[in-house]
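tool_call: predict_structure(chain=1)
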Amino acid sequence: MKRSSMENEVCAVARSLDVIGDWWTLLIVRDALAGLRRFGEFQRSLGAAKNILTTRLRALVAQGILETAPASDGSAYQEYRLTAKGRALVPVLVALGQWSNEHVFLPEQERILPVDRAQRLPIQPLQVVAADGRRLAPEEVHFDAPQRPPAGLS
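tool_result:
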């Protein structure tokens, strides 16, 4: 089934999935956050076929999530580095990891936890907070559609 673009949707969730909805994308971002930079490093970590990884890396560069740069060791290779837009995906990865650790893993299963790099302690659970500082329960969150005038009125 061919995926159709959601780039013109008014829903921010739909638009973000248009950019990062492929599961390879977030795994590449995860690995880049862990310090991987070269094509071969990503391929070894992910086990992805060269053609698939090439396509995904090109898409991430085109979307401004990664950028290419000459290799830091002076070799002829290029490296992939996260941009500010790519680093802004950290809360998304942490939220997915925390959700998965709570709802997907069995208590006895080994898992990778998001931790504070300096202290190696687990990160506090992310919270959805209102503008006034209140923690919001799921039923208190609403995705508002834009207000449009009724047909025929402008």
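agent: The chain has two domains: 12-87, 92-154. Proceeding to next step.
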